[in-house]
Write a structure and sequence with these properties.
Strand content: over 45%
Largest sheet: 14 strands, antiparallel, barrel
Shape: elongated
Number of helices: 3
CATH topology: Porin
Number of strands: 22
Structural class: mainly beta
Distance between the termini: 63 Å
Strand order of the largest sheet: 3-6-7-8-9-10-11-14-15-18-19-20-21-22
Radius of gyration: 22 Å
Helix content: under 10%
Number of domains: 1
Oligomer: single chain
Length: 404
């Protein structure tokens, strides 16, 4: 029974988009440019991409957007000719930003609400890896009040305090049989409340190139009193925990962005993200129960990984803007640690976007992002689940903004 419970508690309840459990869907203009936006001052989403660029925005504004994720993951166990697929669920990461203060002043204020980490994964209750996971719902929402100051006409700095609110709900089967002949089930559900920060610098050079350098800090997501619910035979239920605590590092990200302005109508941005996944060494669970079931520490041993992003925007007419982008994300998940919650691998990003100025104040922006995660055949060193994973994601998005 110890082995059964430990196997459950060692699971990592995460799946994300763009790189492991990181969700890079923070602004519709930037999504249309493959997520590039650190080296340019495009719009209110600079609150996320580069707080130092907020003071260079020519207008104040407020915007809100959403990016439904249509994802298809498949798994084929080694030695089998049967391919299993995740069930169709549509998570909806969102983003909202506002910028205030006179554009003529050096000091500007911003507010951002966005979802930088998260995931949704649902497999059939009786699939091959049911003892690893059957369903997952993870949400992490950041609230970021921000100050941005233009030191000179060509240099701006900015920083924001991040308050993170998270929720996780993980379900899986337990290898015990109930009286009705079905497998036992288990669920871990909990909330997190934590803090971090986001800071950046923005520079305009004499040769027309703009430079952005930012760092978003690590946030340690701590579940302090999560609910552990086990549907197991009555004779064993007293030995299973009802509460748990756990900690998951949401890694820091450093970014260098270069903006090029070949004409008044065209903007090109190239971003390099460096994500500090190496902070994720272990996943530890502590739970309330008797000494017969000890606490657990599970090695993860992620490594730092980069993402390259190149995007372009062309103001085709006074009202219409067109965007496109391409990117490549390197997976931080080492061999032997791939799981159904994180069937991660190197991936290609392709995007397109469009913006339309309905009036001088009201704008609509839409984007489409395609992510192709490479096939990866792995044997997990803890669960022993062995097979090939393949994931593709289609992510449309839209936002509305109002300027003044």
């Amino acid at each position: 029974m110890k082995k059964i419970l430990l196997s459950f508690l060692l699971a990592v309840p995460i799946l994300g988009y763009s790189q492991s459990f990181q969700v890079n869907l923070q602004g519709q203009k930037q999504i249309g440019m493959a997520g590039a936006g650190t080296g340019v001052a495009l719009d209110e989403a600079a609150v996320f991409f580069n707080p130092g660029a907020v003071s260079f925005l020519k207008q104040n504004g407020v915007q809100g957007g959403i990016s439904p994720i249509l994802m298809r993951s498949s798994f084929r166990e080694n030695g089998s000719n049967i391919t299993e697929h995740n069930e169709n669920k549509v998570p909806t990461p969102f983003q909202g930003y506002a910028v205030f203060g006179s554009p003529a002043d050096r000091l500007r204020f911003g507010m951002g609400v966005y979802t930088p980490f998260g995931g949704d994964m649902y497999w059939k209750p009786d699939w091959t890896g049911k003892y690893t996971v059957t369903s997952l719902d993870l949400r992490s929402i950041y609230f970021q009040p921000t100050l941005s100051y233009k030191i000179t006409d060509h240099i701006g700095i900015g920083a924001g305090l991040v308050y993170s609110q998270g929720h996780v709900d993980l379900k899986r089967a337990v290898p015990l049989t109930l009286n009705n002949g079905q497998s036992s089930t288990a669920e871990l559900e909990g909330d997190t409340h934590d803090f971090g920060w986001n800071a950046g610098i923005y520079l305009e050079t004499e040769v027309g190139i703009t430079i952005g350098i930012t760092h978003r800090s690590e946030v340690n997501a701590n579940v302090k009193s999560g609910d552990a619910t086990f549907n197991v035979p009555a004779a064993l239920s007293a030995t299973f925990p009802t509460k748990f605590t756990a900690s998951l590092p949401l890694p820091g990200t450093s970014t260098l962005g270069l903006g090029f302005h070949p004409s008044d109508k065209t903007i090109i941005d190239f971003d390099v993200n460096w994500v500090q996944w190496s902070k994720y060494k272990n996943l530890a669970f502590n739970y309330n129960t008797n000494a017969a079931i000890p606490n657990s520490v599970s090695p993860r041993n992620y490594h730092d990984a980069a993402t390259l992003r190149l995007g372009i925007q062309n103001q085709t007419t006074a009202k219409l803007a067109l965007r496109a982008g391409v990117g490549y994300a390197f997976s931080p998940v080492n061999d032997g640690y791939v799981t159904p919650e994180v069937p991660d691998a190197n991936r290609v990003l392709l995007s397109a976007g469009i913006g339309y100025k309905v009036t001088n104040r009201f704008n609509i922006d839409a984007s489409f992002l395609y992510e192709n995660v490479k096939k990866r055949n792995e044997t997990n060193i803890e669960s022993g689940l062995s097979g090939e994973f393949k994931t593709v994601a289609y992510i449309p998005g839209i936002s509305l903004s109002y300027k003044w």
